Amino acid sequence: MRGKFITVEGIDGAGKSTHMDWLAQRISAAGHVVRVTREPGGTPLGEKLRSLLLSEPMHAETEALLMFAARREHLAQVIAPALAGGTWIVCDRFTDASYAYQGGGRGLAASRLAQLESWVQGDLQPDLTLLFDLVPEEAKRRLAHARALDKFEQEQGLFFERVRAAYLERARQFPQRIHVIDASRSVESIRETLAGLLDDL
Ligand code: TMP
Fold it and tell me: What would the pLDDT profile of 34-48 be if each residue is shown by its tens digit?
């Protein structure tokens, strides 16, 4: 049987990382083989592109193209073979992040991104997307305790307002797939919600 493809999204500082390992453990405890991966990244080439994307200033379209180039490699080398072999994938960000950051944040037209999406992934979509939603001021406070900030994390509040709005718009467009999680809740309460969503898959 084909594995399930789960993606985890949210603005920087929304707290998704706290739940990645827990999600994998829960899926594994239910008897599935699971692989945790991330975007941009997930392959040796993708990780090289990631370090460029997170540090080098570049044109917004270059940024989008490199995100999708890394994604193409990730799909070919990791995601598609794993799903075909029955392995479940938990991916820290995927194409919704391109619509949110390059679309909402940088202002690229969604129609442009849709062309790249269709080229790179055909009909493949996640089975479940967990969108951690938090007001940017609180996300920024959480990030202040983290390591040195990368290129995206250094963006100003208005950028994250636009990213958040684009994510929420995606959730409105794809309500069956994208579940908005109120990330201001306690870790325990969030995990209860996540457990329910996994059980329903
Ligand atoms: P991370 O810090 O959650 O690992 O993500 C790295 C950054 O890359 C994050 O700030 C969001 C950004 N990003 C995009 O701008 N577009 C994308 O398509 C992806 C996957 C990530």
Answer: 999 999 999 999 999
Which atom, in ligand 1's list, is nearest to the CA of 16?
3
Cα(4) to ligand 1 centroid in Å equals 22
If you measure from the C-alpha of residue 1 to the centroid of ligand 1, how many angstroms do you get, rounded to a whole number? Answer: 30
pTM: 0.97
Integer CA distances (angstroms), 22 to 5, 61, 145, 159, in order: 16, 35, 22, 30
Q: How many Å apart are CA 158 and CA 179, to the nearest integer?
A: 24
Return the ligand 1 atom nearest residue 94 CA: 20
Sign of CA dihedral 133, 134, 140, 141: negative
Over pLDDT 70: what percentage of the chain?
Answer: 100
SS3 label, residue 130: strand
Residue type, 158: L
Angle between helices 44-53 and 60-74 (to 10 degrees): 160
Cβ(114)–Cβ(78) under 8 Å?
no
